[in-house]
Design a protein that fits this description.
- The structure is a single chain.
- With about 220 residues, this protein is of the alpha/beta class.
- About 50% of the residues lie in helices and about 10% in strands.
- The protein contains 10 helices and 5 strands.
- It has a 5-stranded parallel sheet with strand order 2-3-1-4-5.
- Helix 2 crosses helix 5 and helix 3 runs parallel beside helix 6.
- The longest helix is centred in the last third of the chain and has 17 residues.
- The chain is globular and about 50 Å long.
- The structure holds 2'-deoxycytidine-5'-monophosphate (DC).
- The site of 2'-deoxycytidine-5'-monophosphate has 14 residues, from helix 2, helix 5 and helix 9.
């Protein structure tokens, strides 16, 4: 971790709430680093799939997580290794599902916890995921929890996925999302939940820009910028 002073903003919430887009826009506005923590779970799952490591072999998965290099691009994004095609696999539904399985394993979470804390750097870090405000950065200066109703989250996911998969159905996406919410919220370790000191933002019926405006307004009111 850097010795210089830095601030952390955490943004947690369920899949499809718009965290990725909102966190990225906020990081750009502030000129801060962005930690998309889901990528670390996805990279671990992808490495396991490529190397044939079973998704219940906790010790081997934790070893993969621990030895995974986490670097940042010059623009402050987590570096995803590989060709363009390999990089695009990180967003595949199957990788997301396997990431949720890998994310239940305590040794994997522990290995990634240290890596995530090591990502904070001056002047600041925007960290998005499921447990940024509750576990990884409990002392963060600003915490937000972003949600939206499940039908709207499914609709957004469906429109994204349809670009690459013409056969995808809205009903299937909704069912997968409900299952993922359940997995993420019910796991015993670091479940998805709003930190008691996090500000709740709801993106139902609102654009990412509107949510960013609200969030930036809150930061200004609290003396940032
Ligand atoms: O946000 P995402 O869809 O890229 O995340 C993929 C999975 O990784 C998600 O289902 C649960 C897990 N995850 C986690 O357990 N903790 C985080 N901070 C981020 C993601």
């Amino acid at each position: 971790m850097s010795n210089s002073t830095f601030s952390v903003i955490t943004l947690d919430g369920p899949a499809g709430a718009g965290k990725g887009t909102v966190a990225s826009l906020v990081a750009n506005k502030l000129g801060w680093r962005l930690l998309d923590s889901g990528i670390l779970y996805r990279l671990t799952a992808l490495a396991a799939m490529r190397q044939g490591v079973p998704l219940d072999d906790e010790a081997s998965l934790a070893d993969l997580a621990e030895h995974m290099p986490v670097d940042f691009t010059p623009s402050g994004r987590v570096m995803i290794p590989g060709t363009d095609e390999e990089q695009s696999q990180i967003r595949a539904e199957q990788v997301g599902k396997n990431a949720a399985l890998v994310a239940k394993l305590p040794q994997v979470r522990q290995a990634l916890l240290l890596k995530q804390r090591g990502c904070a750097a001056a002047p600041g870090l925007v960290a998005e995921g499921r447990d940024m405000g509750t576990v990884v950065f409990p002392g963060a200066r600003f915490k937000f929890f972003l949600t939206a109703n499940v039908e709207e989250r499914a609709q957004r996911r469906y429109l994204q996925l349809r670009n690459s998969d013409a056969a995808v159905s809205l009903g299937r996406v909704l069912a997968d999302l409900v299952e993922r919410d359940e997995q993420d919220s019910s796991r015993s370790l670091a479940p998805l939940r709003q930190a008691s000191d996090a500000v709740l933002l709801d993106s139902t019926g609102r654009s990412a820009d509107q949510v960013v405006e609200q969030l930036m307004g809150f930061l200004r009111d609290q003396g940032l910028e």
